Amino acid sequence: MPDDPVFLITGASSGIGAASARAASQAGYRLVLAARSTDRLEELAGELGGPERALAAWCDVTESDDQQALVQLALEHFGRVDAVFANAGFGRGSSFLGGTPERMRAMVLTNVLGPALTIRATLDALRSSRGHLLLTGSVAGHRALPGSLYSATKFAVTAMAEAARQELNGSGVRVTLISPGQTETPFFPDQVDWRLRADDVARAVVWALSQPPHVDVNEILIRPTAQDG
To answer: Which residues are catalytic?
Structure first.
């Protein structure tokens, strides 16, 4: 339907982003899907209905111009943005000694600057729609892991979500931090039965979106039952 709400997701080509896109599509959202892996992204957009229901767009979240262009594309194509999921990020090779300086720089730019630029690019559209901002945090953003730069980046996202909530207080825009524990995604490519599945996290995303407008679920911290930390 042309009046269905519009959900913009970064890091949408795989893992939690792709699973959230599928779950949101089933819940009636039209989608703007952004990532740097365009082949998988276009395949997912086709699966979810093609340009009338799901639009694929290349975006490097560390580039402000790319993020601004992404929002402009969403507004031109669908006329509105009702929800935004700043989900792009990565974490493998995240130790101080195990990661190269180049990879460390890329992680900080993607995991910290990326969501900050997503917020910057989408705030006006979300204020206009009295929409919903979601960010992917982590259990590691509450409990530091030994030698983990990734933990530091996710602590930053935890603070960013609260900073955005305070800035948007009274605007009608809701803010939710989604903080998963170990999840079977490209972050943890080896299959372990006790880990969360991306679909488990996607259900939490759609549940937060489904709350009535006066309910602001500020964080969902979700662990597999077998995770000890």
So the answer is: 150
